[in-house]
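REVIEWER CHECKLIST
Item 1: Sequence provided? yes
Item 2: Single chain? yes
Item 3: Sequence as submitted:
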Amino acid sequence: MPVLLKTAVTGFRNYLRLERGFSEHSVASYLLDLARYTGWLTRERGIDAASDIGLRDITDFLLDLKNAGYAASSMARTISAIRHFHRFLLAERHCEQNPAEQLDTPALTRHLPLVLTQNEVSAILEQPDTTQPLGLRDRAILETLYATGMRVSELTSLTLEQLLLDDGLARVFGKGSKERIVPVGSQARKWCDEYIRTVRPRLLKRGKPHHVVFVNSRGGPISRMSILTITKKYAALAGISMDVHPHTFRHSFATHLLEGGADLRSVQEMLGHADISTTQIYTHVDRDYIKEVHRTFHPRS
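Item 4: Structure as written out by the authors:
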């Protein structure tokens, strides 16, 4: 009996979580793309069974997305979800062939990330009023973002057990729950230590105990949206016109390391990139920096 699309998607979701170890965020992204895909198949082609999907159905669906103005990056993400889904269907013997094998991924335009200068980072870090409990917490958050290059989701889930201040290290669990060890600089250690000793216990009295390092004003785990608000608030106070967000600190962390002479492999390890080609984008930022230095200081530039 043919497997229904709805049943196949449920099986695929469990496969991503249990066998592939994908993060909840990645699983949610895949399922969102697949919901759009399977909904289109049922609505436009009357397809309810996984085994009835053909290459023409997939290409027509993608053409509809393209005509609707979807960006190349969104198209590529959708194609990735479709490919994984059909590989799963074939492996589970829900179909006899994989019609997605011949799909081409559209060429993506790789935009250089926005990066703060070292002076701009310093200006932002100086903005929180550390005489106030939340100001001290915010300083610790900003210092940690810049010192470690963590993703915002990694920062909000960071526990006391993972933050090894005496060793100057943090155990970070990134995409796919992959663990990496990241150094924590002296300034970040200083502010985190003061926050954990003096502010965090006071905040926890307002809510239930939590193991996460950074908590909100009610004593609960701080949210990603709160971190975004914090970064934007202090960037504005520092007079930075750039649209600063938590990932800007990650970009700046990597770029400043490379500017200082760090090797690409070390930066890749600290960022938790599976593929070094992802890290190489920061070498392009570094080249732009070098060209700007040349234009500024060379007498015949």
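Item 5: Key structural point noted by reviewer: The two ends are 72 Å apart (CA to CA).
Item 6: Recommendation: ____
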